[in-house]
Amino acid sequence: MLYLFGLAVATGLAVAIAAFAGSLSQGRVASAALEAAARQPEAGGRLLTFLILGLALIESLTIYALVVSILLSRKLPETAEVLKVLAR
Amino acid sequence: MASRLLRSALPLGVVLATAGPALASDGGGEVHPTTWLDFLARVRIAGHPLVSNQAALAFAWSLVACVALVLISVMGTRRISLRPGKFQLLLETLVGAMRGMVASVMGPRGVEFVPFIGALFIYIAAMNLLGLVPGAMAGTANLSVTAGLAVVVFCVVHYVGFRRHGLRYLDHFVEGVPKQLIYLPLLMLIFVVHVVSELVRPVTLALRLFGNMFAGETVILILIGLMAPLYLHHRIPIPVQLPNMLLEVLIAVVQAMVFSMLAVVYLAGVVETSEAEY
Fold first, then answer.
1. pLDDT tens across B106-165, in order?
2. Least CA distance to A65: which residue of chain B?
3. Is the distance from CB of B139 to CB of B59 less than 8 angstroms?
4. Minimum CA–CA partner of B250 in chain A
5. Is A88 part of any domain?
6. Into how many domains does chain A fold?
7. Predicted-complex ipTM score
8. Do B261 and A53 touch (CB under 8 A)?
9. Which of A62, B8, B37, B49 is the most exposed place for a label (fewest CB within 10 A)?
């Protein structure tokens, strides 16, 4: 039962923690890009490319956590079965 | 002439190479999703079904993306002229954007890689966008297809490295350490570390693209599932998934760009020479 508890908690927390850290770093990237664009508006186009590239690369780490969460959630049993086992 | 034939066969090679992992792996059961091409699972050739698992279905949808791209190219170059019409102008803009992307990282030496990178980008973007069509499936939503693409990039990068530098390409793996016998343990360690980091690159490439596309379609499915009881019981259709599909369009193009941009960066890292070229 502890195993299932750990599995369920890990399935939920994986993406939560990854999204927390990812959003912090994406915020820093976006703010740096905004500052640079405000300083030099004519470089805005190239900055947009770097911004999107940086954001996508950081986002991919959160996506890895999502993939792990999906892999873990496949191992979780149905609630009805767990309730039946608990009722015995 | 031979090099031109080779270069135009390269995109086809990219496509066919992605078939490797898709057809070799046990891609999971043929249960979901429900797409237009599901009937291929019932078509049998010499007793074997044409599409036996999920990965083969994803590969079939990637072929659909190929056919669509071929049709677009043929339509665009039918009356090719020095005064381009609107469609030809659109295609030329696309090619120019590809050249700009490669040149921004590799400089003028990168011109020979533009067909490969351009094919990669257009192919991945087409596959990703095809997933948003109702009843169609994104080829890249299956790890086998993205693994095939990553393997292709890996092979091309190292092949180019060995072509350019011969066996001295291995020197680039042990950079930073003086090449003397007394440093042999350090050399071996650095070599192993570098090999591992090179092997991880296709894994991250594949996982990134697969994760983004699969997560996107999963979110759309969940949103549809949220509104499904409302429609089934009360006949009120509220398409909550539409804003998310707009985001998916952006993500489709951005992930294609990220994949091909990373391929350019890896190629640039391999093509560099030690002498100054200015």
1. 888 888 899 999 999 999 999 999 999 888 888 898 899 999 999 999 999 999 888 888
2. B211
3. yes
4. A52
5. no
6. 1
7. 0.79
8. yes
9. B8
